[in-house]
Design brief:
single chain; mainly alpha; DUF2721 domain-containing protein; membrane; DUF2721; transmembrane
């Protein structure tokens, strides 16, 4: 009997911890996206100060392209992590439904929980791309300044 209660508690808590972790990652992703957006605004203001008829420097264009890639990677990470949270919530509802006798099929629970894990994993891949892009840019800046 005690092992049954422990099993029910473990089963109910696993998705809740996944949801809390996903929310923490979403917070990190959106904070980084906010910082990139601020840098895009800075580049845009600098571009607006360029006299009419002249083109922005190639360095500014490269920097803007770099910021676009980082923004895209972070947006993908946010979308995937949000989808992971959605799938986790559906899994929790399925578990609660099973507890009150309105059981969803095991296959449905499996697919939603697997979707949550796969989406979170893919959001990590997108975030890794953004981190690598930021690190490469930082290293290039240090190299140009002669400090690396």
């Amino acid at each position: 009997m005690l092992s049954d209660v422990v099993g029910v508690i473990q089963t109910a808590l696993a998705p809740v911890f996944l949801l809390a972790g996903t929310a923490a990652f979403l917070s990190v992703y959106t904070a980084r996206l906010t910082r990139v957006a601020d840098r895009v605004n800075t580049v845009e203001q600098k571009y607006e100060q360029v006299p009419n008829g002249s083109l922005p420097s190639s360095q500014d264009l490269r920097h803007f392209g770099y910021l676009q890639r980082r923004t895209l990677a972070l947006e993908v990470a946010v979308i995937l992590a949000t989808f992971s949270g959605f799938c986790t919530c559906i899994s929790i509802l399925a578990l609660l439904g099973g507890a009150i006798g309105r059981e969803l099929s095991e296959a449905t629970l499996f697919w939603f929980f697997s979707g949550a894990i796969a989406s979170l994993l893919l959001s990590f891949v997108a975030f890794l791309f953004e981190i690598v892009s930021a690190c490469l840019s930082m290293m290039a800046q240090m190299y140009r300044l002669g400090r690396y």
